[in-house]
Amino acid sequence: MTGTTIAKAAGLSNSDRIRMFRSMLLCRMFEDRVYYLFLQGRMPGTIHQAQGQEASAVGVCSALESGDMITSTHRPHEHAVARGVPVNSLMAELFAKVDGCCHGKGGSMHVGDVDYGMLPAIAIVGGGIPLAAGYALSFKYRKTGNIVGCFFGDGATNIGSFHEAVNISAIWDLPVVFVCENNKYGASTAIEKVTRVPHLSDRAAAYGIPGRTVDGNDVEAVYAAMLEAGERARGGAGPTLLEVETYRFAGHSRSDPGHYRAKDEVTYWKARDPLTRYEAFLTGEGILSATEVADLKASVEKELDAAVAFAEASPSPRPEDCLNDVYAA
Amino acid sequence: MSTLHSTAPENKTERRLTMVEALREALREEMRRDERVILLGEDIGVPGGFGGAFTVTLGMEQEFGHERVLDTPISEAAIAGVAAGAALGGLIPVADVQYGDFLFLAMDQLANQAAKMRYMSGGKLTVPMVFRAPVGATTRGAQHGQSLEAFLMHVPGLKVACPSNPYDGKGLLKSAIRDPNPVIFFEHKLLYGSKGARKEAGGMELVVHVPEEEYLIPLGQAKVVRQGSQVTIVANLLMVHRSLQAAKALAADGIDAEVIDVRTLVPLDEETIFASVRKTGRLIIVEEDNFTGGWGAEVAARVADACIGSLEGPIKRVAAPDTPVPFAPVMENYYIPSVEKILAAVNEVL
Questions:
Q1: CA-based angle B203:B209:B213, to the nearest 5?
Q2: Each residue of B125-153: pLDDT tens digit?
Q3: CA B59, CA B39: separation in Å to the nearest integer?
Q4: A212 with A243: CB under 8 angstroms?
Q5: Nearest CB to A138 within list B70, B89, B119
Q6: Residue A55's domain is classified under what CATH number?
Q7: Which of A171, A241, A243, B301 has the most crowded CB, counting CB atoms within 10 A?
Q8: A219-234 vs A54-62: helix axis angle to the nearest 10?
Q9: Is residue A320 part of a domain?
Q10: How far is A87 from A94, CA to CA, in rounded Å?
Q11: Residue A74 to chain B, least CA–CA distance (Å)
Q12: Are A134 and B93 within 8 A, CB to CB?
């Protein structure tokens, strides 16, 4: 399924492509930076990182419009970056500071900002899928023409809330695209050990909706599939189950070295790294030169330097701020 | 007919409504008032159907259509999650489960999602939704008769209402719909009233005056439904009526009991309860929930903390025993707190 080239999507200009590439760079380099900050003990909490899944986050989010909404998971950093939540506020949230996107009440597993089209991420596996359906119902009821992009992992397809939410979205033709990022493992458990169907998109048939599996390490293939599913949803024809085949290079969480994965499997996927793949495509097509790629990376580094400085300078919440924001007045 | 308990203001033109009629009127008024209000649940708007398990939404789809009265699959996690998601998206969903017992199927969506989205967003989001749930033992056995107030009361971010009569039911439901937070709205099956298609065996024939003009009852205000000086009895839902019956019997023996209907558990109107206990010096709490960890335990703890100097006897809790709800009517009658058990508790502390 996963190749090494890029299936050029129709309708993308070269500047679109450069924007998508930069967004992927920002996702990857954000995650790498966060990883080192954790190793240095400069951030509290835990992290679930998504290096290797940039084509999914960026491909999906590039097919969304400004009023659309995404829901995310316990592995949300790249979704947030790709959706355009400012990296300053993301970094500050990871540093548990007041200028974080959740003012220090969310943390890594709940980053998000509705002002940028992302609900706080939901860290209960599958728990965000019914919320996505509900948000889509509000779009349909208000006739906004918007859609919800609902991210979840392969592991979420075996929990009841997935079934209930996909079914109710199907019967009501809700404007939502269910994006299953199949990165092959739910924590350390391989998906094929816990699931009989060869493709998770096969499950769409059970709900009477289209299901499709795409090469999740090809950003343009993901973009094109999301655009098509999104147009279907916007047009009132209901949801699609989009299985995005990808791989996380990192372990499940910060303490997981990933010993349950065979070396040659990791090697296989590293050879299909969505970022180097897209870079090779863009330079091969003459869309970017090597110098321009280097300049982009330098500009992303600079943006991340600034984000870390912003986050470190931001004040901590007062301890008693924990008492606020339980109820709306 | 409960003349014991008419909390409505005096009015020359009596409009005597059952709980079902009053709740339906609240829904209708709020739906007319605000287009964002939608209903969703199982069997709520099927033409020729029931209007929900207890007829509260009967006929609503005729006025508001199926865009606003949404029949769901049997899918409680989806009902609760869709309600929360739609609330985040700017609607005001009023969802229901057919029996409160089914809330357990929806608990992730209620306790982890609806209750916490505001907090996790750092105060940016609101989740204005109502989740209606019938409770109370009514010869349906262990999975259709539980009282779940304490479970939901324990979750920060949720509000909990539990009206004892049609007047309060209407005013509280309207307030719940206008509240920007998720409100769990408990209704007791024996208080729905005996009119209509789903007459409830053993139900109280409870009809009270519900005025034509609009009124709201704020969440967080208990009501002293009987003034008294010697002992305070705090109760909710059906137990308010049993407590009033007990108070009447006590009065015949020259004992002057005050009865407080908590009306909402979150927010809890501590001040009304504390003021009463400071006056009477004695407290009995009556609830239909299982004894251990029931809401009465919370009230007892707070009163013990705040009013210890005023207490002239131990705080007594009259609750169901720590068993599942039994089926056999003789066992169920034993299980549900009775007037006799309330009287026994009062006699122990006086």
A1: 135
A2: 999 999 999 999 999 999 999 999 999 99
A3: 12
A4: yes
A5: B89
A6: 3.40.50.970
A7: A241
A8: 40
A9: no
A10: 10
A11: 13
A12: yes
